[in-house]
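Quick entry between incubations.
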Amino acid sequence: MSWCCTYSLLPPSTRLQVTDLSCSWQLKNAHQMLPSLGKKPEKQKKNKMKQFYGFQTPSTIVAYYGLKTPPYKLDALEPYMSKRTLEMHWGAHHRAYVEGLNKQLANDDILYGYTMDELVKVTYNNGNPLPEFNNAAQVWNHDFFWESMQPGGGGMAELGVLQQIEKDFGSFTHFKEKFIESAFTLFGSGWVWLVLKREEKRLAIVKTSNAITPLVWDDIPIICLDMWEHAYYLDYKNDREKYVNAFMDHLVSWNSAMARMARAEAFVNLGEPKIPIA
Ligand SMILES: [Fe+2]
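Done. Structure below.
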């Protein structure tokens, strides 16, 4: 879960946002806070800056998003997803999305101070994505994907998630068949999701292409599966069927799904009297 802190003592354009423990800090637009230095000699400028900053060197502030670590060791999903795949998928691909996003944001004065969820929605721009959208969405999708799996996962859903699946898909077997079929029939790179439809108050399986995430349609994701080739090629080559079955049988985290469902129910109220309305 991302976290952030905002320093309201600074003007809005210089607010800081830190969304992960691994983030770095810089001070952006700090020069705008400086007294006007005009064309004063260099020595006077340095003295003025010293009065303003004290003994600290001025720097630049930008929003930084960190690379979150999966909630298990990189070899914990073996033999169904290898350490080698995690090192490449998380350590190289996911990292590249984070670094690409930070690079884009460093040159942006408007996309500033958002949580990652907000940034994804804002940069989707009602279906006309801004250049930052792909990186932002891929960072969010991958964070969600790592937490959609667990060592010793897979098998049958339990408790509330199982009840809801049975209610909306008829049976767990039917849900599983539909999820696997959606993964097989996804053309090109993309994602398969189990989501809670906010308006209809029911679960659904949706496919998205490239970096698109159901967040942008206001669906509430419960589980996702990465169907980009980089997710499975090292372990399964082009055998997508084997990869998807391994995910369903040995990797998917129904514990995460239960926690996400509980949170989602609090927002949409599925009709259970015991569920509070947010
Ligand atoms: Fe991926």
